[in-house]
Amino acid sequence: MKKEDIDEDAKPVSAPSTPARRSTRSTATPASKKVKLEDGADDAEGVDVAKFHEEDEDEKRPKRTPRATPGTLAKKLKQLEAYLQTPFPDFSGPTPEQCQEVEDALSSVHGKPSRPDKLEDREGAAAGCGAVPDVLDALVRTILSQNTTSANSTRAKEAMDQKYGRGNYVAVHHASLGDLAETIACGGLANNKSKAIKKVIQHLVDKQMAETDIKDSEITHVSLDYLHDMSDLDAMKELVSFDGVGPKTASCVLLFCLGRNSFAVDTHVFRITKALGWVPQKANRETTFQHLDVRIPAENKYPLHSLFVRHGRSCRLCSANGNITETEVDSANCPIKHILKRQRGKKSGVKEESSKMEDDSDDDDESLVMPGEVRDVDEEKGKPPMGPPA
Questions:
Q1: Rounded Cα distance, 38 and 147, in Å
Q2: Is the pLDDT at 330 greater than 50, yes or no?
Q3: Which end of the chain is more exposed for a tag (fewer CB within 10 A), N or C?
Q4: In three state form, how does the secondary structure of 190-210 look?
Q5: Which residues are catalytic?
Q6: Rounded Cα gap, residues 49 and 54, in angstroms
Q7: Which of 111, 126, 145 is nearest to 329 (CA)?
Q8: Which domains does the chain have, with CATH numbers?
Q9: What are the tens digits of pLDDT across the range 239-273?
Q10: The whole model's pTM is what?
Q11: Could you give the CA distance from residue 386 to residue 187 in angstroms, rounded to a whole number?
């Protein structure tokens, strides 16, 4: 699915306590498949090799712009107009105290995540969601991670590195679209992801040729590192201008690669924060991102995002349909169970308890609204076949 500040020096600041009321507009997710590319809402699950080979000659040097189409881009940028404002100005949660309470609870089980002092591209490590120093590499990794497991996205990245060279995006540029799609097929949604990757690289090639008067055949390196010099808002706008890159993908690049305080909302974050009552029930993933990026204090964004993802993958009570993909934690003693029960009490009109439950061991979990009950429609659409867990 960003932002904290839009100053020229791009120094992160905490979200304002009383954001300005934004103009009324629809919060529905755009129906365009190009926008849905971010969430994998495409019917294709396999790779239509014949189709791609027929298009190879045209795709080698696309004549059309590699950016998002005007209509799609306009819709994306419209979503960013309310930067630093929430679509739910009358919804006060979550408070800084609530954010810290949940962070402390989850950290008691998973440990407190901290940003690395220096990003490294470690061979053999999981592809991840952008925690590498090269911005283009971070974006490609995050695109590959859309709607699939960490194991599958890592296989896709490793396949790219083996075929074209590690981080050699000039070689990817010169490869055909069909060849790239076949290479990353193990990651799922290869048709969409290969198009997105090729178009990003094509834009960078065109940009370099325009600025240096260099020929395509003379280009030896392409880079997105100029985003380091942009404000949060400008970097977000640049990223979402590409087909296949939505707010969540862009936010991950800002958070993990550029070191900005952006609260990315993936399926785990969406599911758990909605169960916690941090957003209205009508919120979708996009509006959840917009609201929480304003409400959550800057210092809590990195640890909370990481903890929600980790917990959503390892706690059966808080995972989707009880399915876990990481080493299981003691679900019987879920660290946020008492907070979820408190939220259940609010929904039922029960007065909020001022202290922790004395003993949750005999509680009936069926009386709770657990995160696994929150449906993420975007996540359910276009879901590729899943491999074994990471």
A1: 9
A2: yes
A3: C
A4: HHHHHHHHHHHHHHHHHHHHH
A5: 248
A6: 9
A7: 111
A8: 33-329+372-380 (1.10.340.30)
A9: 999 988 988 899 999 999 999 999 999 999 999 99
A10: 0.72
A11: 9
